TrEMBL record, chain A:
Keywords: Signal. It comes from Streptomyces violascens. PROSITE patterns: PROKAR_LIPOPROTEIN. Residues 89-462 form the Solute-binding protein family domain. Residues 1-22 form the signal peptide. This is Peptide ABC transporter substrate-binding protein. InterPro entries: Peptide/Ni-bd (IPR030678), SBP_5 (IPR039424), SBP_5_dom (IPR000914). CDD domains: PBP2_NikA_DppA_OppA_like.
UniProtKB/TrEMBL annotation, chain B:
PROSITE patterns: ABC_TM1. Its main location: membrane. This is ABC transporter permease. It is a multi-pass membrane protein. Belongs to the binding-protein-dependent transport system permease family. It is found in: Cell membrane. It comes from the Bacteria. Gene3D superfamilies: MetI-like (1.10.3720.10). The keyword Transmembrane applies. Keywords: Cell membrane, Membrane, Transmembrane, Transmembrane helix, Transport. Residues 97-294 form the ABC transmembrane type-1 domain. It comes from Streptomyces violascens.
Length: 543, 304
């Protein structure tokens, strides 16, 4: 008994860790469902327990996001091409990209019957930005004028105001947002969960509201049985364009993806967001047309720790050489079971401004040229690299494959540097203790190419953990951010992306795909840019 | 007897303090910051992190944190709040323990009834066909890992995953899987000890006295043979509860095992220490019960 415990533990860790790496996706394809559509039918979706309570400004991870986004609608949303669409907003306009005017659609109501007004938005955002409320998404509001008054930059400092001066209510359905500096794609940010409105009842007891959220979205919260299920039902008075075509959703918690898949085959759960590695080789065969295989807007890269001696004064040619030494096609097809698609740039598909082949040749496998480039650039310092990753996320296999590819093509020694789990990996990255290279990933926040460039490669940007810094690039980004129009800004960012090959802030590897499936009871199952199922479009069929 | 129990209960206090302190220190020394990790891949906003740490008391020294934590438990039965969700840890505990308790209880009953039953069968016929068959069967169970048995049952025999209601009837198969390994040990312990005691002097005396066979086996032989088995079973209930991680995850049971694993991954120190504290208590109480049972089974053992 005693002897077996440690083996059991290791096996358990592997199983659950795999479940922790989430990505979802799918083809609209024709359907397995036969019976007539039941407009009031309720279906179930596999979903892990949200880490935080269901407060929009405190929800960042994927489990909470799907649940919160079913209950809350924002001002805007975007379609599959990354084009902005209006939801709760009648219009979002600006003449100078600095002062934005939001007009709300009339007669919208929260699920408790109170009206959705300009105040519902302004109060919610002021509350979310306030450092006293310690919301995870508070920095989403940092572009708004007066943010530092409610959220000072120094640790432990008290806010000097409880409202951001940039938010002004004009009348019940109109308010204005003044930014610190022009931001042509600001309207896109408004589609993020953090920008949801909150009803008055929220502020009386935020804690209770997190357990029983009242929103303005297509579904009304019904119940949350922790670690088991969350139930939401269609909100019949919903006025938005994405009214639910079904009666409601039950988010079901499974201990592992394998169990969820078994239950899908038994028709006990209707929609999955991902398939476990064990079932990937067979799921297309098992599910036929109900198998989903679709890219979404997320990218996996290998980033350089530019603060190390090895890369401090790196010649971009060496970095280009390393990139060309990776055989993306073979690795995605074999080791990754076709669950990824080779990347050809830094911006993912489904994002405004995506351009095919943006990185040019440097993502093409060419051992001879790779070797030549590394030689021309003066070689890899120490002739050895390591790639840091978290061992609990199923990354080991492809990291080893990438390393083999690099070594075979160029003779540069390459080893995987596995950290015990995601926490240990993050700590090394955030504490700037990465020794050479590290695994990095990015899922879109909003579908504009700026999100994949400015937020990752600008000096001190939120996603820039490798310490990449280049003045010329910073200037170009600043210029693109202050462009006169959205189109212009996107175009400038496109030029910046093409230019990135000369800096090589990271090596693009591949785009993520949704590998998922659904039961015979539902049809019209599609997945959005985040890799999440589009709940409101799903149709439930009678038996 | 009463004094003995009182003394044992008092001894639990230092053991309890020592184990909780050890676990607390170990969680504290794990790499990774649970608050910064809430932000995932993105940069954590330092002021927000500082505020959350302050609200949770994580900005105090480790000794102060331990003191606050222990005094919360002892004085108010308050295990603190979770870092990410802010839910009270007592809520988490009270939702995780009942189902695991049922699962472990079923597994325990299974291993006691079937294990001792098979053990008696084998022990009484030591060296013969039934004995050999049972020994091979237990060898098989010991050598095949639990997750293999579980996955074969689900994949090949079409056993369904446990539904979200977690009805007791659904827990029977997982309980059998969970209890299978201990079952094998119980069989072997019972068998060996029975086979040995069959040849003991008191057995010959009992038979010579002309006692019915049923009484010889049921009272004289069983009582003496069960001491090692009871020792094993006593500690095993705790092991069943804490070690159910694999079985729970295979069969979709949302109990203690999964919660412990998740707390480690997310560095939810308070939850983890709370869970383990309760497991420690279970072990301590079971050890006391086992010692008291010795006196019942073997009249030669007396506690003053």
């Amino acid at each position: 008994m005693r002897g077996a415990t440690s083996a059991k533990w290791v096996a358990g860790a592997a199983i659950i860790a795999l479940a922790a790496t989430a990505c979802g996706g799918g083809d609209k394809g024709s359907d397995g469902a036969q019976g007539a559509v039941d407009p009031n039918g309720i279906f179930s979706v596999e979903l892990g327990e949200p880490e935080n309570t269901l407060v929009p400004s405190n929800t960042q991870e994927s489990n909470g996001s799907l649940a919160v986004n079913s209950i809350f609608s924002q001002l805007v949303d975007y379609d599959a091409q990354g084009k902005l669409t209006m939801v709760n907003a009648e219009s979002v306009t600006s003449s100078d990209s600095k002062l934005w005017t939001v007009k709300l659609k009339k007669d919208w109501k929260f699920h408790d019957g109170t009206p959705v007004t300009a105040n519902s938005y302004v109060n919610a955002w002021n509350w979310a930005a306030n450092v006293n409320n310690a919301q995870l998404n508070s920095s989403w509001f940092d572009a708004i004028k007066g943010y530092t008054d409610v959220h000072p930059a120094e640790k432990g400092a008290k806010p000097t105001a409880d409202k951001m001066s940039g938010l002004k209510v004009v009348d019940d359905t109109t308010f204005t947002i003044e930014l610190n500096a022009p931001l042509p794609y600001f309207a896109y940010k408004l589609g993020y969960t953090a920008y949801s409105p909150l009803p008055d009842s929220f502020f009386k007891d935020p804690k209770a509201a997190g357990e029983h959220p009242i929103g303005n979205g297509p579904y009304k919260f019904e119940s949350w049985d922790h670690k088991k299920q969350i139930k939401v039902v269609r909100y019949d008075d919903y006025k938005g364009p994405d009214k639910a075509k079904n009666g409601g959703v039950i988010f079901k918690n499974y201990t592992t993806l394998e169990v969820a898949y078994q239950d899908l085959k038994a028709n006990n759960v209707d929609v999955l967001r991902q398939i476990g590695p064990k079932d990937l080789p067979l799921y297309r065969q098992d599910l036929g047309k109900r198998a989903v295989d679709k890219p979404y807007s997320a990218i996996q890269t290998i980033a350089f720790a530019f603060y190390t001696d090895q890369w401090k004064n790196a010649n971009p040619k060496v970095l280009q050489g390393l990139s060309m030494a990776i055989d993306r096609n073979t690795i995605t097809k074999t080791v990754l079971n076709g669950t990824r698609e080779p990347a050809d740039g830094w911006v993912a598909k489904g994002v405004l401004g995506y351009q095919p082949d943006a990185a040019g040749d440097i993502t093409k496998y060419d051992p001879a040229k790779a070797k030549q480039l590394i030689q021309d650039g003066g070689g890899v310092p120490g002739n050895q690299v390591s790639i840091q990753y978290n061992s609990d996320g199923g990354h080991k296999e492809w990291v080893d494959a990438v390393c083999n590819s690099i070594t075979q093509a160029t003779g540069v020694k390459c080893v995987g540097d596995g950290k015990a789990d995601f926490q240990a990996d993050l700590q090394a990255r955030k504490g700037k203790q990465v020794k050479s290279l590290y695994r990095s990933g990015w899922v879109l926040d909003y579908p504009v190419n700026a999100n994949f460039i400015s937020d990752l490669f600008r000096t001190d940007a939120g996603g820039n953990q490798g310490g990449f810094s280049n003045k010329a690039l910073d200037e170009k980004i600043a210029k693109a951010d202050s462009a006169a129009s959205l189109d212009d800004s996107v175009k400038q960012y496109q030029a910046v992306e093409k230019d990135l090959v000369n800096y090589m802030p990271s090596i693009p590897l591949w785009y993520y795909k949704v590998n998922a499936g659904y039961s015979t009871k539902v049809s019209d199952v599609d997945y959005n840019q985040q890799g999440d199922p589009v709940l409101t479009d799903i149709q439930v069929h009678k038996k | 007897m009463g004094r003995y129990v009182a003394r044992r209960l008092l001894q639990m206090i230092p053991v309890f303090l020592g184990t909780t302190l050890l676990i607390f220190l170990m969680v504290y020394s794990l790499p990774g910051d649970p608050v910064a990790a809430l932000f995932g891949d993105k940069a954590a906003d330092p002021t927000t992190v500082a505020k959350i740490r302050h609200d949770l008391g994580l900005d105090h020294s480790i000794w102060r944190q331990y003191w606050d934590y222990m005094s919360g438990i002892v004085l108010h039965f308050d295990f603190g709040n979770q870092i990410a969700s802010g839910r009270p840890v007592t809520d988490i505990l009270s939702s995780a323990f009942p189902v695991t308790l049922r699962l472990a209880g079923l597994a325990f009953v299974f291993e006691v009834v079937v294990g001792i039953g098979l053990g008696i069968m084998a022990g009484m016929r030591a060296g013969r066909l039934a004995d050999n068959a049972i020994l091979i069967f237990t060898l098989l169970i010991i050598s095949v890992p639990v997750f293999v048995i579980g996955n074969i049952l689900i994949g090949t025999f079409g056993v369904n995953a446990v539904s979200l209601d977690e009805n007791t009837s659904e827990l029977i198969v997982p309980a059998m899987v969970l209890g299978s390994l201990s079952l094998a040990y119980v069989v072997r312990l019972t068998r060996t000890s029975m086979a040995e005691n069959l040849r003991a002097d008191y057995m010959r005396t009992a038979i010579a006295k002309g006692l019915p066979r049923r009484r010889v086996v049921g009272v004289h032989l069983m009582r003496n043979s069960l001491i090692p088995v009871v020792t094993f079973l006593g500690t095993d209930l705790g092991a069943l509860m804490g070690g159910a991680v694999v079985t729970e995850s295979i069969f979709n049971i949302h109990g203690v095992g999964g919660t412990i694993y998740e707390s480690i991954v997310r560095r939810e120190g308070t939850t983890l220490v709370g869970l383990v504290t309760i497991l420690v208590l279970v072990y301590l109480v079971m050890a006391l019960l086992v010692d008291l049972l010795y006196a019942v089974l073997d009249p030669r053992i007396r506690y003053a």
